[in-house]
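tl;dr need the bound structure. longer version: we got a ligand (HDE) that a collaborator sent over and nobodys looked at where it sits. i said id run it. heres the input, straight from their email, havent touched it
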Amino acid sequence: MTDFKTSTGNGGETHQQASGDAAVLTTNHGVPVSDNQNSLRSGERGPTLLEDFVLREKIFHFDHERIPERIVHARGSGAHGVFEATDDISDLSKAAVFTKGEKTEVFVRFSTVAGGAGSVDTPRDVRGFAVKFYTREGNWDLVGNNIPVFFIQDAIKFPDLVHAVKMEADRAYPQAGSAHDTFWDWASLMPESTHMLMWAMSDRTLPRSLRMMEGFGVHTFKLVNAEGKASFVKFHWKPRLGIQSTIWDEALKLQAADNDYHRRDLWESIDTGAFPQWDLGIQVFDQAFADAQPYDVLDATKLIPEEVVPVRIIGTMTLNRNVDNFFAETEQVAFLPTNIVPGVDFSNDPLLQGRLFSYLDTQKSRLGTTNFHQIPVNAPRCPMHNFQRDGMMQTQVPKGRANYEPNSLAAHGEEGGPRESQAGFATVNAATGPNEQGDKLRIRAETFADHFSQARLFYRSQDAHEQAHIASSFVFELSKVGVLEQVPPRMVANLRNVDEDLAKRVADGLGIDLPEKAKAAREPVDMAPSDALSIHKNMKSTLEGRSVGILIADGTDAAELDAVIKAVEAEKARAIIVAPKVGGAKLSDGTMRKADGQLAGSPSQIFDAVAIILSDAGCKMLLKEAAAVQFAMDAFGHLKAIGASAAAKPLLDKAGAEPDAGVTDLGKAFIAAAKHRFYDREPNVRMLA
Ligand code: HDE
C-alpha cells in the first residue's frame, strides 16, 4: 500500500513538523485525529466507508459554514475599541456610559448597504455606522449611518426601498449600486426620499476611508436624567481625521484596484497603531424647540442644522483592536436598536419604531436561535440574570429551580433568582411629541408633508464643486435607467422643487427637455444654508492617516527618495514605494530599494497624493509603460497633489498633467500640497453637469 503521508510529504509527520508544538488535531468531540489527509476506504482504490466519522464530521461542518447574510448591510468590517466619556452631562442623562471619565468597551461595524457580503467596498452607497457599547448597565447599540437622514418616513416602506435598490429580482444585477431602473422608478415616485437622494448623490457616499466619515444616530432619541426629566437628542460621530471623500471616477477605479479598499485600510491602521478616533456629539433640544420648527423632529428625512443647535462633544471613541476572527465577531455581531440603557429612550419617530421590531427578527433568522445574545461578541459584559430559559443552542447552565417569579424559594434556603430594580430601564412617561397618545390612525402626520425644503438646504449649503458633483451623479445614475423612459423626467420634475438650476443641469446632462415641475405636497421654504453640511467647507489640512504613493525606477535619486519618505512620515502619513518590480529598483547610489507594491497592482487611486521620483533613464523607460503614464494621469484626474523630480517631467507631459498649484517639485511645497485635493483643477479634466 502506498503511504502518501511519507511519499507526498503532505501529511502526518511532515505536517506536524511544520506546525511545531501545535496542539493535537481532534474531532469536534475531542477525539485525536491520526490522519487528516486520507479518508477511510474499502481497499486501496475502493469506495469510502460510512464508518469514517472523521470525514463525515469535517464535511458536515463545512457544508453548514455559511449563515444567511444580512438582507441589507451584508458587507461590513468590524473592530473593537473603547469609548471614554469626557463631559459631565448628568443634568441630561443618568446613563453610566456618559459618566465623565467612564471607559466603556465598544464593538463597531461599518458597512455598505446594497451589496452582498462579497461585494466591493467603494460603490456609491450609504455606509452603516453601528456601535455596540458594552456598558455596565447593559448593552447600548447606536445603529446609525454616515448620513443624518433617511429615504423614508415610515418603516412600512423599508422592504420596498430595499427591494428597489438591491439587484433586480429577475436578472440579479446590478450588485451594490443604485444606478438602475427599479431604484430610480421607486425613488422618483417617493418625493420624501429627495433629501436623502441629495446626500446619496453627493461625495458623502464615496468616503475615502471609514476612518474619515461622520456617523449619525439619524432619529431623534431622548436623554433622561435621574429626576426622570427627558430631553430630545440627536447623536453625531465626528472623525478626528476630518471628513474626506473620493470622487466618482476614482471610486469606480478603486473597485478594480482593490475590492477591499476600506476593509484593508481599517485593518492596517489599527494593526499599525494608528487608531481611528471619533468624538461623540449631541444636539439637545426640548419640546418647545421642536414645536417651533417648520419640520417635524420625529421625521427621519429631516436634520437639525448644527448652526441652529450646535453639536456638543461628550466623549471619544478609539478603535484599538482588530477582530481575532471575522465570522465569530464581525459576522455574528447582532445590533439591536432595542438595546438601550437607563438614561436613553426612544422617540415616536415611526421609522425608529419599526426598527425596534425588525432587528430582533432578523437576528433570529441570521443566527438561528433566540440565544444569539450568548455569542461572545453579543454578550453583555455586565452580569445578566433573568428567567428566560432553554431554546436552541443554550450554552449557559442555569442552576436550581428558580425559572419563574414571583417565587418564595429563598425562604427555603434555595436560590430565588433576580428581582426587578427601581433603577432599571423605565420608559419616559411624559407628553414628548406630537401624537404621543391618540386615536389609532393609519396616517402620515401633516407635519411630515414638506419633502423638499431640506433637500434644497443641503444643495445650497454645498460649494460649487460639490454642487457639480451632485448634478453629475444624478445624470450618471439616471442615464443608467434603461427601458423606463418615464423615470428620468419624473425625477427631474421633483428636482425642480429642490433647485431650478440643479434640475436644469440634470436635464441638460441627460439631453432631455425640462419637464413640468412636480406638484409638492407642501411648498418648500428657504432655510439658512448650513456650512456643516458641506465636506469641502470642513476638510482638514492634514496628511495624518493618509498615504502617499512614491513611484520610483532604476536610477532614482536615493537622497531625494529618503527626504520625501521622511517628510511624509513626519506628518503621520504612510509613504508607500511603487516600482515596476516589487523586488525593487537600483537607486542612484547603487543600493537596491524594495518596493511595497508593484506598479501594475498599485495604481495611484489607492493613494491620497503621489510623488514621482525618476532619473532621466528611469523616466525614459517608464514612458513606455502604460501603468506609469496612467499613474500620473489618474492622480491628476483625481485632483491629487503630484510632486515630481525634474527628470520625471516627460512622464507628466505624456500623462497630460499640466502645471498647476497641485503639481510641485519634491520639496516642502509637495507636503503642503499633499494635504489637499485640487478641486479647481476639475473643469480642466472632466466635463461635469
Ligand atoms: Fe437598518 N436594518 N433598518 N437602518 N441597519 C439592518 O439588521 C431596518 C435603518 C442599519 O452592522 C438589519 O442585523 C428597518 C436606518 C445598520 O450589523 C435589519 C429599517 C438606519 C445596519 C434592518 C431600517 C439603519 C442595519 C439587516 C426601516 C440608520 C447594519 C441586518 C424602519 C439609522 C448593522 C441586521 C450591522 C441593519 C432593518 C432603517 C442602520 C433588516 C426595518 C434609518 C448600520 O433588521
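gonna send this back to them w/ a short note. The two ends are 74 Å apart (CA to CA).
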